[in-house]
Give the backbone structure.
Amino acid sequence: MEAHGSYRGDDWSPQRLVFHQNLESFAERVGLIVGLQSNGKLSQEQAYAQIRKLWKGLKASKGALLELPGPGEGGIL
């Protein structure tokens, strides 16, 4: 696994930095899962289940670290 990149947003905060690292980790893990599925080590269903679990963790991380918009306010996560 590689070291995380730096966060360069104008709205820097410790919470945003942690979320940025969580986002990078999510992307890296999804890449690994896709590679395992492509090489026949995981079925599509197993890969989907693992990615969904990671997504739920990322979504919870965003909720815990950043303010979420209310219903209908257009948040992407």
In short: The CA atoms of residues 69 and 75 lie 6 Å apart. Residues 27-64 form one domain.
